[in-house]
Amino acid sequence: MRIVLGVGGGIAAYKVASLLRLFTEAGHKVSVIPTDAATRFVGVATWEALSGNPVSNSVFDDVEKVNHVRLGHEADLIVVAPATADLLAKAATGQAGDLLTNTLLMANGPVLFAPAMHTEMWQHAATQTNVETLRSRGVTVLEPASGRLTGADSGPGRLPEPEAIFAAAMALAEASTDDEPDAAPAAHTSLAGRTVSISAGGTREALDPVRFLGNRSSGKQGAALAAAALAAGATVRFLAAHMDVQPPAGVELVRVESALELREAALKAAVDSDVVIMAAAVADFRPAEVSDTKIKKVDGEDAPVVRLIRNPDILHELVERRNAGGGQQLIVGFAAETGDAQGDVLEHAAAKLKRKGCDLLVVNQVGIGRVFGLDENSVVILSGHGAAAESAAGSKADVAAAVIDRVGAELTRVFPAT
Ligand code: CTP
User: Fold this and answer.
1) Where in the chain are all domains bearing CATH 3.40.50.10300?
2) Of the listed 102, 215, 364, 377, which one is catalytic?
3) CATH code that applies to domain 187-414
4) Which range among 21-35, 118-132, 155-169, 294-308 shows the weakest confidence by mean pLDDT?
5) What is the pLDDT of residues 173-217, one digit of tens each?
């Protein structure tokens, strides 16, 4: 998602550096526009380094790019933090004296203000009228948090915590995508004449004839990918482990249960596929012993201990076989990552992409997403060929369309149709 992050001239500007980090770690492209006053609190260098993009607040920089029109127009979301009394007033009265206020007038998507100021300024009738005006126009203005302010005073006026602003911003972006017409967004690419094999759902690893170890994968993202690939004209082979939803009509369906069954089906399907997408949640372990009969409880005996053994890594094996001459498929993996002390989401994902050796890795940002319930709808697509990372957010259909678009582009580049 493209985000414009407007920064107002308040001391809380320093906290917005953390907010920017949350956006970029979630894979969003952020253009920061600080007001001149904001740069007296946090300098342009900080915003440029953290966003990876040039930063200006002048309508007279890079005039040929027409930034005062383009930035607002292209942004999927505009967030202003801290929104000072001055910025709220300018936005409410439609002023356009600098790049940020111009951008707000050009906004094409949702706009969120996170105010921060002293309590008296927040409660002043002028500010409250401006907030009402903005809200009546569909702009989201968060309530400031209460607590210690810059001086000795305390009360409502603190900038909400960066995580709270991030959550509100993601929810707003998601809600605005949901408002769009329901039809699944079609991928822009053509996969006519291509065969795409997609694994989906969660494997079940048998313990005995009635019990298994499973996972919570619903198969919805895999089904959305299949629908997007069909819409792009591909022949779709759908390797379905356990799913909560029906596979889309029109696929060649192969039902599997365990990781070993999926391995067999995937290796077979890969031979004459142009693309293999491993969207299934494959159990990394299975019970070492599978009882032929139902395991019974026996009074006086200890409960059984389940020993697990490793399942083969199907994705890795697909890559190895392909590299050893087993066909010419483009291979796509999925990964769920969290940031930790060893690295952020993207660093872990880049290491996984290298380990797995696949062409594209679609990374779900669980660390941020799970907290805010958006994990399935915000991904980053990493390329093993060194192409730039790309993010996609929205419904599963939106994400699927973005992945299939990217697959189409990579396919044309790596294995042009003959
Ligand atoms: N995968 C696979 N075979 C396995 C396990 C996973 O093919 N035995 C595939 C999945 O379909 C997915 C990718 O590998 O495309 C996920 O990789 P995995 O190593 O399982 O990553 P995570 O589940 O994200 O986590 P972790 O690194 O902790 O294992």
Assistant:
1) 187-414
2) 215
3) 3.40.50.10300
4) 155-169
5) 876 765 544 445 556 667 888 999 999 999 999 999 999 999 999
57 given a catalytic annotation: no
Q: Which residue has the higher pLDDT, 294 or 397?
A: 294
Enumerate residues 6+ apart whose C-beta is below 8 A from 74: 2, 108
Count of alpha carbons within 13 angstroms of residue 214, beta-carbon side: 15
Q: Please give the Cα distance from 408 to 194 (Å, whole number).
A: 10
Helix runs in 275-395, H state only: 314-323, 345-356, 366-372
Burial of 257 (0-12, 13-18, 19+ CB in 10 A): middle
| 106 contacts 69 by C-beta, under 8 angstroms | yes
- What are the pLDDT digits (tens) for 14-31? 999 999 999 999 899 999
CA distance 370 to 163: 13
Q: What's the predicted TM-score (pTM) here?
A: 0.59
258 Cα: distance to centroid of ligand 1 (angstroms): 14
Q: Helix (H, G, I), strand (E, B), or coil: what is residue 35?
A: coil
Q: Pocket of ligand 1, candidates 278, 348, 360, 376: which has the most ligand atoms within 8 Å of its Cβ, to mutate?
A: 278
Q: Which one of 282, 332, 340 would you pick to mutate in the ligand 1 pocket, going by the greatest count of ligand atoms within 8 A of its CB?
A: 282
Mean pLDDT of the chain: 89
Amino acid at residue number 355:
R
Q: Provide the 8-state DSSP code for 5.
A: E
Fold of 2-175: Rossmann fold (3.40.50)
Residue 296 confidence (pLDDT) above 90:
yes
In this predicted model, what pLDDT tens digit does every residue of 263-276 receive, in sequence order? 999 999 999 999 99
Type of residue at 300: G
